[in-house]
Specification:
Helix 1 packs across helix 2 and helix 1 packs across helix 3. This protein starts with 7 loop residues before the first helix and ends with a helix. The protein has a single domain, classed as Winged helix-like DNA-binding domain superfamily/Winged helix DNA-binding domain (Arc Repressor Mutant, subunit A). With 221 residues, it is mostly helical. The protein contains nine helices and five strands, in the order αβααββααααββαα.
């Protein structure tokens, strides 16, 4: 079973890292910029998010502390790249990791939808093969079967390793309305990855902006 529950930002980051490893291995591991593009892309994502570099840097650090993400130091490279360790930590085979990733990226789905979308990451020859994978994941506490929606031909399945936060809902609504999305409220101070200058700078810029806003609010009183 998953050792620790993920928040919405961690779930998006982990889903993207798995997806890119299996669909574009020549570009994997991912730089911070590539990871941000994958997290915020408009296609194959539900909900669509607008995460800042500091959001992603803080999420990477939380995942690193859970041993689900590591940093790759390529010889001669000037930037750090990130890789996931979900298969190793959770002891999952590639088809199982692909299913988890698709559910993290797109939310609850019926088996037919899930098979078609996960096919780009791992081949499922039949719905029965996918069903066996889902059942194995269910028994280990990674997914659950939902009651069929009214008029639906099949039940949906959803992952249960990540929570759906109110911040995610607020972001999705704000994006749809064309208004600025609120910054997620962290339950503890976000810590940038100490080994990355790029993530340190992004986190410091976010902190300076927060302090400026706080000072401006005080002067208005």
């Amino acid at each position: 079973m998953p050792a620790l529950e993920l928040d919405a930002i961690e779930a998006r980051i982990l889903g993207v890292l798995i997806e890119k490893e299996l669909t574009t291995p020549e570009q994997y591991p991912l730089s911070l910029n590539a990871l941000a593009a994958g997290c915020n892309q408009k296609s194959n994502r539900q909900p669509v998010l607008e995460l800042s570099d500091s959001d992603i840097a803080a999420g990477l650090e939380r995942l690193r502390l859970k041993s689900l993400v590591g940093v790759s130091h390529a010889s001669g490279a000037r930037i750090e790249r990130y890789r996931h360790a979900a298969g190793t930590v959770w002891e999952l085979a590639q088809p199982e990791v692909a299913v988890i990733a698709e559910l993290l990226l797109r939310g609850a789905q019926m088996p037919g939808e899930l098979r078609g979308r996960a096919d780009r990451m791992s081949r499922f020859e039949t719905l029965e093969a996918l069903g066996a994978t889902l059942e194995a994941l269910r028994q280990r506490g990674f997914v659950r079967r939902l009651e069929p929606l009214p008029g639906a031909r099949a039940p949906q399945w959803e992952q249960i390793v990540a929570s759906t936060t109110s911040q995610t809902t607020e972001r999705t609504t704000a994006t749809a309305l064309g208004t600025p999305a609120p910054v997620p409220v962290q339950t503890e101070p976000a810590r940038p990855a100490p080994s990355s200058l790029e993530t340190r700078v992004a986190a410091l810029e976010a902190e300076v902006a927060r302090l400026k806003q706080g000072f401006a609010d005080l002067t208005k009183r």
